[in-house]
């Protein structure tokens, strides 16, 4: 009875946060600039991501930062750094990558921000081409396209990403139709600024067009080839989509996932493992004449009152305490998915009210959302869920893609692991489960080599500097290791913790071709860093081995010391994938150790 009352209390703490997402707030402080400089706004700088922390929690420093507003200024910035042989990294408006893409390393590097390179360069309606600067947000790109009667066929679901950022990481939506869901598949031209010899002024602009083999290197580049100045995209005539979410039992999910991407052009699936449910998104193109002016204003991407975010974090932390039972966690985990379903996940039929499925609307109103970055500053009375200026929700996000031929077997293994201890997966349900999106094979050297299903998992992260263990972290780690090792999955370049990238480059058949282009474009490694060299297999390993390293995902444990034995977490084999090595809580062993 006491446990039930405690869980009910946790749920009550969470409810205000969930309920405030059902209506739009009048204001909301947009996220801070990821680049901050102590001297004159351009010197003694730090750079972070929108979450305020990289996987290793390191503070990334740079000697200076520049904020070019034109291509000429961008060329001058690259030339200055190249002449001085300073390391350079590119930062975007919001820097949504979890990984250290924007960190030059050391303290002497230069940050080039593309935040002010955000204009439309050219619109060619007859050829359906749109050229924009690389710092333009997806939000603005789809609006410019719509105003010209065109549409970007596919995109990520969050519109706070920049064009250059999407190309750096291979960002995508969900589709196996046509060219697929990755934004880079619609790129037909790029202008990129790269280092050059002194005889060429230390920087040059390279212009690449469709058919140029280098385009396959540049359109997914991790930012190691130079700074993209402009991008030309091939668009389609404006169209409408019809969206319906259907929740079903997950028993036939392995078989359904094998065919769902072929049945629905924009279909995806979310799995709630503890509840044994799968949420299928039936999402297809319909005629422009189809009635409806629907809007996607996804609940998690709206501003929320800061007080509610603080309350939610307090509830999360209490749910992670050892004294909290799995029953407590599971009872609290029922609420998020139920409320999101009740509120149609933020979709409305007319921009204001949800009256029922299907929701029909124009592509630019359906494909992505992110209204928490649109609001005017309200002195942090409200903010995006992840705003690092407040001690609100703090999380990891892992993303990996499994080839379609292996998806049914992998998902069956996931379900086997769940069936061994369903309550261990309750916190996964609380984060709205595992999102699965379809990605088509790409010609890009660092794109997907095969048609794949991408798995996105979001989970609790401790604010503790030494990375306090999470409840049932072993099941998350076993799933990831199973995917990456047993099923040969590739990690998303902009997500994941360090261990996921160990050996990942060997899974890309054209990695050697990419490195050849890198050597030509930037032979001195101006745009490379220790992290990018590790990830690309050039030098070193992304693993950081030491006490507690597996708790933070900086390594895969091979010794108890890599976990937290003093807190009862020991290195153990996986339960289904026995070759996995995970940190598992063992109360009896802890008592013995003490």
From TrEMBL:
Listed name of the protein: L-gulonolactone oxidase
Pfam families: ALO, FAD_binding_4, GULLO2-like_3rd
Enzyme class (EC, first level): oxidoreductase
Cofactor(s) in the UniProt record: FAD
NCBIfam families: pln_FAD_oxido
Pathway info: Cofactor biosynthesis; L-ascorbate biosynthesis
Signal peptide coordinates: 1-28
SUPFAM superfamilies registered for this protein in UniProt: FAD-binding/transporter-associated domain-like
Keyword Signal: yes
EC id: 1.1.3.8
Example GO BP: L-ascorbic acid biosynthetic process
GO molecular function list: L-gulonolactone oxidase activity
Record's keyword annotation contains Cell division: no
Ranges of residues in domain FAD-binding PCMH-type: 51-238
Reactions listed under catalytic activity: L-gulono-1,4-lactone + O2 = L-ascorbate + H2O2 + H(+)
PROSITE patterns xrefs: FAD_PCMH
Organism: Urochloa decumbens
Family: Belongs to the oxygen-dependent FAD-linked oxidoreductase family.
